[in-house]
TrEMBL record, chain A:
InterPro entries for this protein: BP-dependent_transpt_permease (IPR050366), MetI-like (IPR000515), MetI-like_sf (IPR035906), OppC_N (IPR025966)
Boundaries of every ABC transmembrane type-1 domain copy: 109-306
UniProt protein name: ABC transporter permease
Lineage: Bacteria, Bacillati, Actinomycetota, Actinomycetes, Micromonosporales
Membrane-spanning segments: 39-61, 113-139, 151-173, 179-198, 237-260, 288-309
UniProtKB/TrEMBL annotation, chain B:
GO cellular component, one term: plasma membrane
Family indicated by similarity: Belongs to the ABC transporter superfamily.
Xref: InterPro entries: AAA+_ATPase (IPR003593), ABC_Ni/Peptide_Import (IPR050388), ABC_transporter-like_ATP-bd (IPR003439), ABC_transporter-like_CS (IPR017871), Oligopep_ABC_C (IPR013563), P-loop_NTPase (IPR027417)
Main location: membrane
Localization per record: Cell membrane
Name by which UniProt lists this protein: Dipeptide/oligopeptide/nickel ABC transporter ATP-binding protein
GO biological process, one term: peptide transport
Top-level lineage group: Bacteria
Annotated Pfam families: ABC_tran, oligo_HPY
Membrane disposition: Peripheral membrane protein
GO molecular function, one term: ATP binding
Length: 319, 328
């Protein structure tokens, strides 16, 4: 008798569990599969670590990152090629200006991540705006729409035709060297990618049956573009954004390395640190290796997460 | 005076470097209020293009030419501009498509998609729209409609998705409904339920229904009058009974003969129509079915066969029709 009641309880549990599954959207579903993917977890853990460091960096840092204590105490004499390596107090040694390198690494995380995120957001916003308008116009706007699309896309093609670093360098040269310049320059480089991606994705969706069905019900074109086509076209753009974050950090580092970043090297940033290490590569390679490794690992984290996200959102792989 | 009067509808697709295709060639038929009219034919005969042309859903681009008249209660749908057409679609004329899964937006809950139509044409918002949407889902036989509104298309079964699409199509009580193979993507048992639902809606609201199908069983169960299409032309049109009992065009006869019969003995071979729909005449005049026809005579290849109208409006385009009284 009790087993029968147990079974009834179990049954209602099962049906309750089924109720929880109601209202599962594409995104919830994707997140669920993301959690089961080891690559996604690895990427997320790496990024989480770096984000924590970025937030808590100044608190965690054992020394003031801008204090040239090494020179004051006479330990560092970069003119004579004396830059001490790791010690018990200074885990990664000093940099060429006698500042604690480990502290600079920790504090630099914030700037570097900020550059990556903001420049990607700049590229994403402008690119998605251009691509979204072009895609909607081409897909639904008739003859006028096709013209709008052609004009917008040719502008994007012009951006795409320039090598990305050259484009970034010319923007940076135009606006003068600063951190803002680096973000704008790196952001502009990714504009064509986002624009083309969203446009193509929207155009593909515009030919979909559900768009025809909505049209056959007299739904307005603006509504179709915004509530039907756009949400279905966003997945590849979001994936691209995570991948762009990785390249944005590397490109920002490259610009800083070329001396187009923040001229005030007192505020630590991995790209600038990499550039500063150049003359001392023979004496203390660690000064270049650590920031380079940090950049690479951050990029790896974003890439892992991005790739996993792409897989999770791919409808062909969904069960 | 029929509600929708289609006269001499022709649609051609021209592409540079390719042969111009005349997908629909002088199609005429009428639909009265409360009537179910069938458009029957195999793939590529112009059924869907006909319906898309009436709905104004064919892409307006170079190379697509639409001629003729589709008089809907005094308005020629083919000449109406795009803006006015958007007002008519969904309110006066609505359409149901073949594949219910791909016809619903996968990332938007059902409720949003149903209320969208109500907002667009009936100005309903918020609570009132949700209430009406619930009533609509209930009317098309979706159990627990309030909860279903919050669900996404992939959580509904195929039959329920088609019911939801029907709910969206009838949301504004259109006077004309076009169903383009509404049951093709569904299981047989669900097919019967969906057809029953459509029949009920037509009977209760007096909506005229154009039923596009290649399934003769659907025609037999649903349609009042039937138009048989072949290669873009209506080759036979009649009321349901005469068409099934006394088909005059050899194509219709062949179609009916090719239906497998339950009372035929085991091992009885099927009776297909020989050739395929691609075996059309290489020149435009003449009967397109001639290359596959058993009753072909020399006159078939000369000029397009004229419409012969017989008893009770039974029309056919054939110079050597199946004799009356022959068993199909």
């Amino acid at each position: 008798m009790s087993t029968k009641i147990d079974k009834i309880d179990r049954l209602s549990e099962l049906s309750a569990a089924k109720d929880d599954e109601r209202g599962v959207s594409l995104w919830t579903e994707a997140f669920r599969r993301l959690r089961r993917n080891p690559a996604a977890i690895t990427g997320a853990v790496i990024l989480l670590l770096f984000v924590i460091v970025a937030i808590l960096g100044p608190i965690l840092a054992p020394f003031t990152p801008t204090d040239p204590s090494g020179i004051r105490e006479g330990v560092v004499k970069s003119g004579q090629g004396i830059i001490p390596g790791p010690t018990g107090d200074h885990w990664l040694g000093y940099d060429h200006q006698g500042r604690d390198f480990f502290s600079r690494m920790l504090v630099g995380a914030r700037q570097t991540l900020l550059v990556g995120v903001i420049s990607t957001l700049i590229g994403l916003t402008i690119g998605a705006l251009i691509g979204g308008v072009a895609g909607a116009a081409a897909g639904l706007g008739g003859r006028v729409g096709r013209w709008i699309d052609v004009v917008l896309m040719r502008i994007v093609d012009m951006l795409l035709a320039l090598p990305s670093l050259l484009l970034a360098v010319s923007i940076a040269a135009l606006l003068g060297a600063s951190l803002t310049t680096v973000m704008i320059a790196v952001g502009m480089v990714s504009v064509p990618v986002f624009a083309r991606l969203l446009r193509g994705s929207m155009l593909a969706q515009a030919g979909g049956d559900y768009v025809l069905a909505a049209t056959s019900l007299g739904v307005k074109r603006n509504t179709i573009a915004l509530t039907h086509i756009l949400p279905n076209s966003l997945a590849p753009v979001i994936v691209q954004a995570t991948l762009t974050l990785a390249t944005a950090i590397i490109e920002a580092a490259a610009l800083s390395f070329l001396g187009l970043g923040n001229p005030d090297s007192a505020i630590p940033e991995w790209g600038v640190m990499l550039a500063d290490a150049q003359p001392y590569l023979g004496i203390r390679p660690g000064l270049a290796i650590w920031p380079a490794a940090a950049i690479i690992v951050t990029a790896l984290g974003f890439t892992l997460l991005g790739e996993a996200l792409r897989e999770a959102l791919d409808p062909k792989l969904r069960k | 005076m029929p509600l929708l009067d289609v006269r001499d509808l022709s649609v051609t697709f021209a592409r540079r470097g390719q042969r111009t295709v005349r997908a629909v060639d002088g199609v005429s038929f009428g639909v009265h209020a409360g009537e179910v009219v069938g458009l029957v034919g195999e793939s590529g005969c112009g059924k869907s293009v006909t319906s898309l042309a009436i709905m104004g859903l064919l892409p307006k681009q170079r190379g697509v030419t639409i001629d003729g008249v589709a008089d809907f209660d005094g308005t020629d749908l083919l000449k109406t501009d795009a803006r006015a057409m958007r007002d008519i679609r969904g309110r006066d004329v609505a359409m149901i498509f073949q594949d219910p899964l791909s016809s619903l937006n996968p990332v938007v809950p059902i409720g949003v998609q149903v209320t969208e139509v109500l907002t667009r044409h009936r100005g309903m918002r918020g609570e009132a729209a949700t209430k009406e949407a619930t009533a609509l889902l209930d009317r098309v036989g979706i159990p627990d409609p309030a909860r279903r509104l919050k669900e996404y298309p992939h959580q509904l079964s195929g039959g329920m998705r088609q019911r939801a699409l029907i709910a969206m199509a009838v949301a504004c009580k259109p006077r004309l409904l076009i169903a383009d193979e509404p049951t093709t993507a569904l299981d047989v048992t669900i097919q019967a339920q969906i057809l029953e639902l459509l029949k009920e809606l037509v009977r209760d609201s007096g909506t005229a229904l154009i039923m596009i199908t290649h399934d003769l069983g659907v025609v037999a169960g649903m349609c009042d009058t039937v138009n048989v299409l072949y290669a873009g032309r209506v080759i036979e049109n009649a009321r349901r009974k005469p068409l099934f009992y006394e088909p005059r065009h050899p194509y219709t006869t062949g179609l009916l003969r090719s239906v497998p019969r339950l009372d035929a003995g085991r091992g009885t071979p099927l009776n297909p129509i020989r050739g395929s729909v691609r075996d059309v005449l290489p020149w435009p005049d003449g009967c397109a079915f001639a290359p596959r026809c058993d009753r072909r005579v020399d006159a078939c290849v000369g000029e397009p066969p004229a419409l012969v109208v017989g008893y009770d409006g039974h029309g056919y385009r054939c110079v050597n029709p199946t004799p009356q009284g022959a068993q199909p």
